[in-house]
Design brief:
Blueprint (H helix, E strand, L loop, with lengths): L2 E6 L7 H12 L6 E6 L1 H4 L6 H17 L8 E4 L5 H11 L3 H5 L2 H13 L9 H4 L1 H10 L5 E3 L5 H18 L7 E3 L29 H9 L18 H6 L5 H13 L4 H28 L1 H30 L4
Parallel strand pairs: 1-2, 2-3, 4-5
This protein binds adenosine-5'-diphosphate and tryptophan (TRP).
The site of tryptophan (TRP) has 13 residues, from strand 1 and helix 8.
Length: 330
């Protein structure tokens, strides 16, 4: 079976964009691939300098994957910082990675642009963690002989860089690393946020799945709609409330609501209340298990620790091959 690998940065406050855009589609891959999922906590170190918050977010994101049905019997699930082979491979890969490749990485370039605009030194706020982020990510991918890497479009460049790095090493030392392929899910649409822009933590416009009910309700009620009176016809396809609602309503009800938009007679407030109730109903079991796990973090630890053992088993032979190829084996 081919290997699929994907990492999730521990960013906490999982929202419905993360769920429909990343978690749900990734979980369906277990039928086609041997799946490896991990919490990319080392990747968070260059931007999150609050240890307490990072700890909590690692558990939150791990719990989210577990409650949404990640099958730890069929797939491997672990946390990146439990795998010492990753930083070791990162160091070896760094030696064959041209600096120019890092200069072209989007996240670094975005920082340069931001600094230029603000009249700052080009490297203001750029730490080496950010600068070499793609090498760490290449190590994640290459350590397990991954065949495919399911990612959002924004991560395609990182997968391309991982391929370049592997090809460089293979060119110098002979065929040692498997060349991975990035895959994007076509079915996944961008979920709009409550203000109509892409739903994203950075915009503070999310519907957080595991927030207390009253906070979630408040967010649902804040979904921005236009000022068309209830009796007037409206366009469902341009309304972000409807775009979000259609992920939750039963298909016949969604069609009924669509007709109400087109004919007139729909009150936004009532639809928001219905959306809120549907969300609570849909996520009830997941929310309950999530709260349980967050109160019993040792259960999450157990799952991650046993996953790390399996991951290390999978990665060790690859690292041994690399060590041998470059001449540091015994
Ligand atoms: P955020 O934008 O909230 O910071 P991340 O960048 O951490 O989210 O994204 C984690 C995963 O969730 C990525 O695979 C990303 O493609 C997916 N994702 C995030 N927001 C959305 C959205 N609004 N619609 C669809 N997928 C999304
Ligand atoms: N960089 C990815 C993100 O920000 C997370 C990630 C880290 C990853 N290592 C990976 C994704 C390896 C796929 C494969 O979303």
């Amino acid at each position: 079976m081919k290997i699929s690998l994907t990492g999730i940065k521990p960013t906490g406050n999982i929202h419905i964009g993360n769920y429909f855009g990343a978690i749900k589609p990734a979980l369906t891959l277990t039928e086609q691939y041997f799946c490896v999922y991990f919490v990319a906590d080392l990747h968070a170190l260059n931007s999150n300098f609050s240890p307490k918050q990072l700890q909590e977010q690692i558990y939150e994101v791990a719990a989210a994957w577990i409650v949404f049905g990640l099958d730890t019997e069929k797939a491997i699930f672990f946390r990146q910082s439990d795998i010492p082979e990753i930083p070791e491979l990162t160091t070896i890969l760094s030696a064959v990675t041209p600096k120019g490749l890092m200069n072209r990485a989007h996240a670094y370039k975005a920082m340069l642009d931001k600094n230029a605009e603000a009249g700052n030194d080009p490297d203001f706020g750029v730490n080496m963690g950010l600068y070499t982020y793609p090498i760490l990510m290449a190590a994640d991918i290459l350590l397990y002989n991954s065949d495919v890497v399911p990612v959002g479009q924004d991560q395609n460049q990182h997968v391309e860089i991982a391929r370049d790095i592997a090809e460089n090493l293979n060119r110098i030392y002979g065929k040692t690393l498997k060349i991975p392929e990035g895959i994007n899910s076509e079915t996944t649409k961008v979920i709009p946020g409550i203000d109509g822009r892409k739903m994203s933590k950075s915009y503070n416009n999310t519907l957080p799945i595991f927030a207390p009910e009253k906070d979630l309700r408040k967010q649902v009620m804040r979904i921005v709609t236009d000022s068309t009176p209830p009796e007037d016809p409206k366009d469902p396809d341009t309304c972000n409330l409807f775009q979000i609602y259609q992920h939750f309503g039963a298909p016949e009800r969604v069609e009924e609501v669509r007709q109400l938009y087109l004919q007139g007679g729909l009150a936004y407030g009532a639809l928001k209340q219905e959306l809120f109730e549907n969300m609570i109903e849909t996520f009830k079991p997941a929310r309950e298990r999530f709260n349980y796990l967050m109160e019993n973090k040792h259960e999450i630890d157990q799952i991650l620790t046993s996953g790390a053992e399996k991951a290390r088993e999978l990665g060790r032979p690859v690292l041994a091959r690399v060590r041998k190829a470059v001449g540091i084996d015994r």
